[in-house]
Fold this protein.
Amino acid sequence: RKEVEQDPGPFNVPEGATVAFNCTYSNSASQSFFWYRQDCRKEPKLLMSVYSSGNEDGRFTAQLNRASQYISLLIRDSKLSDSATYLCVVNPPGGFKTIFGAGTRLFVKA
Amino acid sequence: DGGITQSPKYLFRKEGQNVTLSCEQNLNHDAMYWYRQDPGQGLRLIYYSQIVNDFQKGDIAEGYSVSREKKESFPLTVTSAQKNPTAFYLCASSIRRDDNQPQHFGDGTRLSIL
């Protein structure tokens, strides 16, 4: 089993749709979690941290389910500009190793 | 503006040649990292450094070398021993070695073989 797994997609959705991505992780003791956004041929950019209580930033909501070992990202009212690859990032405890998922591609169409 | 600067943006390597990728940050971050990204794949850690004059191998260090003589700078050398260097190289930094701190990235260097 991979340490961090994401559905590669692509997800093709119309503008205004709600879309959700999940990401599973294998180390149950992992401490911190993030979602990054990566545009084509660009660097990843931090989208949001994922807290145990869940968090929301505008149209984006991130949640953590420790029992089932997954994190999720919900995008409401999708915009054309949301088209990108979304990377799930997990920090296992103890060592110094951040694990990046391979990403989920999203295409939002008019 | 605070940030991470990578140069050059594009780099071409000849057979048997060593090339060095630059990474400079003015964020006063302690920790710095180098990743490699191949098409359709996640980021893989090459080297990381938690403090000046100290660095550790990541998952794919073979064929690469680094130095950390200054807090702001973490250059990566791709040596001739790296037989498949074509990739997108990303430098990142974080405030400190801390499980809860996110990493911030430079805009990357694309390396190709001539």
